[in-house]
């Protein structure tokens, strides 16, 4: 498990399965968009790129400073990604940390976007690949964010419980696994108390924190294929 996004582009991760986590909120939004029937989610780094990629029928989504970007149809609240807004459509998404972490991880053999919402399915898929796994905690501006570490712990828990019995973790992974064991009955309150959670709360987005704290609501596996994330579950 790593929390320094810049490390994700290291050559040592080329043969691994990368699981990128931005529980509040980008990877939760991606899981929700695909569950609502979006045909794909295309993460891009900048607002300008998002506008350049846009073609008729696409949906432009994302945030800067946790708010919807001017001229975009959707922000970064999972609740906005419902069948009425995204079914059958490609979502072009740009967020401050999450989409950047995905794009930084592309040297890995496979890249998956995971959150609490779809963690069980992502862990099961990654286990089936029989490759080493690296979990990338997107954090915030290269700083560790507890919600991502907690979600990494949840994924490790899912790998151990359902898939891989002889899992070997690095020390940071072991710490995140213990964190999850300690907080597994208080996911929502831990997210509310986190730095990102408090920021979202201030902006009146408490419903997003609740939405992002639900475990295994979806069974999709958003995986990188030809420049975008699609559900291969
Ligand atoms: C991000 O990708 O930076 C986050 O998802 C920010 C947010 O919560 O909107």
From TrEMBL:
Hydrolase recorded as keyword: yes
Instruction: Check the record and name the Gene3D superfamilies matching this protein.
Output: ComB-like (3.90.1560.10)
Q: What class of enzyme is it?
A: hydrolase
Q: Which organism is it from?
A: Paenibacillus chungangensis
Q: What is its EC number?
A: 3.1.3.71
**Upper lineage ranks?**
Bacteria, Bacillati, Bacillota, Bacilli, Bacillales
What name has this protein been given in UniProt? Answer: Probable 2-phosphosulfolactate phosphatase
Cofactors: Mg(2+)
* Membership in a protein family: Belongs to the ComB family.
Question: Quick check: keyword Hydrolase in the entry?
Answer: yes
